[in-house]
Structures are given as structure tokens and as C-alpha cells.
Amino acid sequence: MDLRLLPSTFGPDGSASSKQHLACIVINEAIAVDAGSLAMAASDEMRSRVRDVVLTHAHLDHIAGLPLFVDDLYAWLDVPIKIHALQEVIDVLERDIFNWSVFPRFSELSIGPGPAIEYRPITSGQAFSIADVTFHAFASEHKVPSAGYLITDGASTVAISGDTATLDGLGESLSTVKDLKALIVECAFPDELTQIAETSYHMTPATLAEHLNKLKPGCPIYVCNIKPSYRDKVVSQLASLNISGLEIMSVGKTYSW
Ligand SMILES: [Zn+2]
Questions:
Q1: Residue 167 sits in which domain range?
Q2: Pairwise CA distance, residues 75 & 110, whole Å
Q3: pLDDT tens-digit profile of 38-83?
Q4: Spatial separation of the C-alpha atoms in residues 4 and 227, rounded to whole Å
Q5: Segments of the chain assigned E as strands
Q6: Cα of 78 to ligand 1 centre, how many Å?
Q7: pLDDT tens digits, 177-197
Q8: Which 8-state DSSP code applies to residue 109?
């Protein structure tokens, strides 16, 4: 399984920056988990192959690139883009994004073989498959209805936490997994902003360490979704905790298992 965190910001010279405003991870160049920067950073191969988008939740930093991606492809799509998400997330997309005011309602626009987008409602605790990749959704603890995912291609399993204040939902799902290859986890705020992290249901280095200590995933841990303004502080606080196997996830790099 190949996995890549797409970039979403630019450095002073115009090249991709490690600061992350938007969330989008692409699996096997073909399945997007969240779509924050999907339209802006997808390679040509991804533009031609990604027809399934799996969403963790409906916050803007996770969906911003979705309407732009559909719009970009609309004229030459020959299959609908399938959006796999909790029903509450689908309801937000239809009510607040694809509502003809903010953007066209692509679920009503035909591309011939069907509408431009089709929704596939998912439920926490249930599994669904896209080609040869199976997703097992688990409940995240965030300000809005959210899911994380265990993702397996039969040979390897990785976990993506999504935005969350705890790893409790993941812990319950992990009992079924023997050999987790990687945990991709958020850590949005530095420790001095614990109050904001608690209010917005995100983690800090201290809370992440506490949950990892409880979870004991026994695999490499890749941290992403760090708020750009606090990136340096979060990186330095995580480094000082010396958590075995933990590193910051690099944007643009392909991770393979
Ligand atoms: Zn969020």
C-alpha cells in the first residue's frame, strides 16, 4: 500500500511547504482520504484515477478541495465520483456546499452514466471496500460527527485517526488487527493551548503521548494535521517527549508498506 500526504501551502520560493492548512492523504494514487487539497495538489495520475473520496468529517480543511476537484473533472468524467462518508457529513455537503449557492449540486448533474457525484453513507463500526482496499470506520471524538479508518489491502493495515481528541475509538477497533504497519495521527495544538485543544476536540503533544501510552500501537507513528502557526512548537514538544517510533509526516513523500 502506498500513501501520500498532499501539500497545501507554499514556501517563499513557491515550492510546496511542510506547513499544513488542509488535509488530504491519497492511497495507491487512487483513493483520497479527505480532500482538503485534492484539487490543488493532485498529480495528473491522481486526477485520472481518483474516483473515490473517503471523508473523516465535514470541516473545511478536510473538504475544501472536493468541490474544486469535481468541477475540474466534470466535463470528462465517465464514472461518478463516489463520496464515502457518515450520513451527517453527506448532509452538510448537500446543505452547505453543493447547494447551488456555494457550488453546483453535482449529485443532480448527469455525466451520462450517472450523476457527477454519488454518496456512499458509511457507519462507524462497519467496513466497506473500494477496489482491493478495505476501510473499517471507527468513531473519532471531534467537535462534529467524525470517523477514523483502519485501512487494509490484505497484506498491510494502517490507521488514520482523523481529527480527534482521543484515540479511544481506534483502541476498540485495533483489537482485530494483528500487525498494524503505521498510525497516522493528528496533533493540532501545542501544550500551552490545551484549553483550545479541549474545546475544539484536538490533541496536544501531552495528550497524544498519554493516549499512545495507553494504546501501545507497536508501529511507526506519523503525526500530521498540525496547525501551521504552531508547527515548530508542536514539533519541538513532540521531540522532547522522545516517543519511540514517532515522526512528523512529510508532505509529498510516498510511504509504502
Ligand atoms: Zn476538524
A1: 2-256
A2: 10
A3: 999 999 999 999 999 999 999 999 999 999 999 999 999 999 999 9
A4: 19
A5: 2-5, 25-27, 31-33, 52-54, 81-86, 117-122, 127-130, 133-139, 147-152, 157-160, 180-186, 221-224, 246-248, 254-256
A6: 32
A7: 888 999 999 999 999 999 999
A8: S
| 181 CA → ligand 1 middle, Å | 25
Helices and strands in the chain: count of H runs, count of E runs:
9, 14
CA of 72 to the centre of ligand 1 (A): 25
Q: Cα(168) to centroid of ligand 1, in Å?
A: 17
pTM across the whole model: 0.97
Report CA(60)–ligand 1 centroid distance (Å).
8
Q: Is a pLDDT exceeding 90 seen at residue 131?
A: yes
CA 141 – ligand 1 centroid, Å: 10
- Phi/psi of residue 240, each to 5°? -70, -15
d(CA 160, CA 176): 16
CA of 2 to the centre of ligand 1 (A): 24
Ligand 1 centroid from CA 155, angstroms: 30
Here the CATH number for the domain that contains residue 220 is: 3.60.15.10
Per the structure, the count of domains in the chain is 1
pLDDT at 211: 97
